[in-house]
Design brief:
alpha/beta, five-stranded mixed beta sheet, 20 helices, disordered C terminus
Length: 533
């Protein structure tokens, strides 16, 4: 009897149905989701990411019901987001006495909310594809839909989209110039589900199963990499001729808004911006909120700030300023970029459009009260336009202030380069600044535009329109980068012209194919079994 029980148990495990019967199914989903989180920057542990995604696909396929698939997707997302977003705890340490106790609860609550999106993707795949292999065919489409929704619902938070696990390879990242980062995510999920489809098709076992699981993502990489390599080898990047200086002052966040530190901060910015001989660039760029005072347009600027502006050139800096025309009882702030000429005049400006919830404003403030982590209780107000700005002597620039760099953008706004200013000092030496920098690089590839990035504590860089880093200042150092502004990519960018239209067509085909597969499996009365021994 015992032998028979053992035999049945082994048979159940070998058929992959342990995932269905295990009482620890939920914990397994959290675990593999957490492992997949190590696929993101700066770790890029691709095998762990694919293992986690492959396990997710199998668990969705084996789910007894649509609701069970939802729970599996939610648990997976919870694990992935907790690992991928743990850097957020660093920001709570800036004012630890006020917010420190909230650090991990905030990350867990945020992860639990974001996990709803992969949960919906899993549920939709199970609903549309059933328990047949159709669920695996549909999953890449529903995952891409869920990621697009995550980037749009409420304020949107498209951080660590699954396509970013390829961030270690400039070659593979070229794919986003055709299908965007959501499209690369779809390809990634399809590659993760493919081993299960292959194993089901041929009923493989033992070593052959292991080889399929290992080789499938390598084959996908072997397809994407040569195409990207060919694109990079054919690249012909000229320079616009304009030279810029990027200033990275590395001001600790704990000092940034201390009144006693303001003068010293301004002196440091001035010293870095004016260092070197007379051949220094005419265009100096300081990071987000670099100016350590409230900027008031109707007041004369301090002499030390005026002295930091190159003669005949521009100082481009992040500032905080008040919204004009508001009553003293209802003030609001703007997170702005200003271009100042050598007379101290503001010749161009841009106000941040996408604001950080609980960082720059409190959602549902009438209910929650003032709950934001930046200094003071006054909320920031969003800008009215995200059109390019024209800077004297420079081509039209698309401005991305901090958080705005994580949002994929469709279409052509006639910009010739991207200027991203940010303050990642909130996040110390954690994974956050690396993930943020990668997102900014992908914006350059999507648009075929060079990127100039000025970050308070790093990572500052000059990046060409193919996402390749030409020069860089790492985290936690002070310094400057002097370099020429690269020209845009000469060839037409498919993603700029067509946007997500090809992706939507692919998603529709996958959903249709999955539904057909489910109906075919139902008519034949066949339920596929997976061998994973």
């Amino acid at each position: 009897m015992q032998s028979r029980l053992n035999s049945n148990r082994i048979g159940s495990i070998s058929s992959g149905r342990w995932l269905e019967h295990s009482r620890h199914r939920f914990l397994v989903a959290i675990l593999v989701g957490g492992l997949s989180g190590f696929g993101f920057a700066p770790y890029f542990m691709l095998p762990l990411a694919f293992f986690g995604l492959c396990a997710l696909a199998l668990m969705i396929r084996q789910s007894r019901s649509v609701f069970a698939a939802f729970l599996v997707g939610w648990a997976f997302g919870l694990g992935q987001f907790i690992v991928g977003l743990n850097w957020i705890t660093e920001s709570f340490a800036v004012e630890a006495e006020r917010f420190g106790v909230l650090a991990w609860p905030a990350v867990i609550i945020l992860s639990a909310f974001l996990a709803v999106f992969p949960a919906i993707a899993a549920m939709a795949a199970r609903c549309l594809g059933g328990r047949s292999s159709g669920a695996l065919i549909v999953l890449p489409a529903t995952w891409a839909m869920a990621e697009m929704a995550r980037g749009a619902i409420l304020t949107g938070f498209p951080w660590n989209l699954i396509g970013y696990i390829w961030g270690f390879s400039d070659e593979v990242l070229q794919t986003v110039s055709v299908v965007g980062i959501y499209g690369l995510g779809l390809i990634t999920i399809f590659a993760a589900a493919m081993p299960i489809l292959i194993i089901e098709k041929f009923r493989l076992g033992g070593l052959r199963t292991a080889l399929v699981l290992i080789l499938t993502p390598l084959v996908v990489f072997a397809v994407l990499w040569p195409a990207g390599k060919w694109r990079l080898d054919a690249a012909d990047i000229a320079e616009n001729g304009e030279r810029v200086r990027i200033v990275q002052p590395n001001i600790p966040q704990t000092q940034k808004w201390e009144p006693s530190e303001a003068r010293g901060i301004l002196e440091k910015l001035h010293a870095l911006g004016t260092s070197g001989d007379g051949s220094r660039p005419l265009y100096v760029i300081w990071p987000e909120t670099a100016y350590p005072f409230l900027f008031e347009t109707d007041r004369e600027i301090p002499p030390i700030l005026l002295a930091a502006i190159p003669s005949g050139g521009l100082l481009i800096t992040g500032v905080v300023r008040e919204v004009a025309g508001r009553s003293p009882e209802d003030p609001a702030l703007l997170n702005s970029l200003l271009a100042l000429d050598d007379k101290g005049g503001v010749i161009a400006d841009y106000d941040k459009v996408r604001l950080v919830p609980f960082g720059e404003f409190t959602p549902f403030k009438s209910v929650l009260g003032a709950m934001k982590m930046t200094i003071g209780d006054i909320d920031y107000s969003p800008g009215r336009s995200d059109l390019p700005i024209q800077l004297a002597g420079l081509p039209a620039a698309r401005i991305l202030i901090c958080y705005e760099a994580i949002f994929p953008r469709v279409g052509n706004d006639n910009a010739r380069w991207i200027l991203n200013i940010t303050n990642d000092a909130w996040f110390g030496l954690s994974a956050g600044p690396y993930q943020h920098f990668l997102a900014a690089r992908v914006r350059a590839i999507e648009a075929g535009l060079p990127l100039i990035r000025a970050a308070n504590s790093g990572i500052s860089a000059i990046v060409d329109g193919y996402g390749r880093v030409k020069d860089l200042l790492p985290l936690n150092v002070s310094g400057v980068i002097d370099g020429a502004l690269p020209a845009p990519v000469k060839s037409e960018i498919v993603f700029v012209r067509l946007g997500n239209k090809p992706l939507v067509a692919i998603m529709a085909l996958l959903v249709a194919a999955g539904a057909i597969t489910q109906r075919g499996s139902g008519r034949n009365g066949w339920t596929a079994r997976v061998s994973v021994d």
